[in-house]
Amino acid sequence: MRSVAKFTKIGESIAATGDQVDLISKTIPGLYNKPTLRSIVFNTGGGGIGKIIQSTALLNSIKETYTQQYKNSDIHVITPHISVYQSIPGIKKVWRTGDSNFYSIIHDMYNSFTWLQSEPYYNQKYIKGKKHLIHAWNDDMGLDPLRCITPQIHLTQPEIQSGITIIRQHPKPVILFQITGGTVRYSKNTNGEDIAHLPHMFYRNISPTIMQDVVNELSNKYSFIQIAKRGQPLLRNVTPLVDYDIRTLFAVIKASQIIVCIDSFVQHAAAALNKKAIVLWGATRPHCLGYDLHNNIYRKACPTPLCNRPNSFLMDNGPDGNPWRCPFGAPCLDHDQQRIMDAIFEY
Fold it and tell me: What count of other Cβ atoms lies within 10 Å of the Cβ of residue 194?
């Protein structure tokens, strides 16, 4: 649903929809009309880097929807991952979620604005596998129909060169891969040591053994670079990029010859950079979260193929509070090593 706020003076006259507008009305008392331009504020909401990359696909639709109505409007973005929006043309300002400076200066510049925000993971057609997440997001905000669902990432020339430099450090063609996604959370054990916890969306991750077999078979022809976070398993005979700056990783993705990944941020970034990837799917759906550009490999291996579980946004947890566990042993993640290598040879 589109959230729109039109103010004469906040607290006296307000026509609005959405909790965020109510929040602003309480945060910025005394906002008066001024004969200035209109601002479009797109709040991406929370989520991981992959979701925020997907949100960039909505920018063209936002512009087309509002350009005719507000020819002098500009676009602000509020997001937890501001690096994703860095250097994208047509954005007036990118604000980090929770930055109080946004609320403190907006009343000095604008007399009215349009607030766009929706949580697409709650869209019924997306949940039921009938609509891609980006289309669901676009529809929920009442925007003009999308012409395409391709996200966008814009890199500067120095950033592009940094990715090329990393790739050129390897003597053979590079296969960049990611086999684990999500945020790694830690707690302390009785000895004060960090214990890594399984992320809610771990049914996207594939076994390190499967990819290790691929590395062992092809290491005479290719060099391997692995993208990972601290606490995630690292393979042998690879170059690990652990907790690297996200813009650097974007540049490495752009410069890589071959990309093998799961349903995580790498596949979204590759699509945004027009780089074909081999995507190994598990419980999530390629037709709801993937791109036709990629070679999408998935296995219909159990009675509920592409079950889209667990869905952390729908609190899909077990009675013990831990993420839902597949009763069939997650056969959808048991990818065939030879099929992966065949996809690499066909790249």
Answer: 12
* Residue 234 DSSP code: -
Residue 118 has pLDDT above 60, yes or no: yes
Laid out side by side, the sheet with 14-15 consists of: 14-15, 3-7, 112-116, 39-43, 74-79, 93-96
Our separate counts of H helices and E strands in the chain read 12, 14
Cα–Cα distance for residue pair 75/47, rounded to 1 Å:
21
In angstroms, the Cα distances linking 70 to 75, 90, 113, 140, 141 are 11, 14, 10, 21, 17
Q: Counting every residue, how long is the chain?
A: 347
Render pLDDT for 26-68 as a digit per residue (tens, 0 to 9).
344 433 333 345 788 899 999 999 999 999 999 999 988 887 6
Where are the chain's structural domains? 3-140, 157-345
Q: CB atoms < 10 A from the CB of 87, how many?
A: 13
* Cβ neighbours around 224 below 10 Å, total: 24
Residue with tokens 């004969």: 35
Q: In this structure, are residues 111 and 128 in contact, taking their beta carbons and an 8 Å threshold?
A: no
Tokens of 145: 């129909």
Taking the C-alpha atoms of residue 41 and residue 30, their distance in angstroms, rounded to an integer, is: 20
Please give the angle made by the CA atoms of 296, 212 and 160, to the nearest 5 degrees.
Answer: 60
- Which residues neighbour 211 within 8 Å (Cβ) at sequence distance 6 or greater? 177, 179, 235, 260, 340
Mean pLDDT for 8-18 is 32
Class of domain 157-345: alpha beta
Q: Residue holding tokens 């009763």?
A: 327
Measured from the Cβ of residue 245, the count of other Cβ atoms closer than 10 Å reads 12
Bridge partners of 74?
Answer: 39
Computed from CA positions of residues 82, 264, 306, 308, in that sequence, does the dihedral angle turn out positive or negative? Answer: negative
Q: Where are the alpha helices (DSSP H) in the chain?
A: 19-27, 49-55, 59-67, 100-109, 124-127, 133-140, 157-168, 208-218, 246-255, 265-272, 286-289, 337-345
Give dist(CA 102, CA 61) in Å, integer: 24
Q: How many other CB atoms are found less than 10 A from the CB of residue 209? A: 10
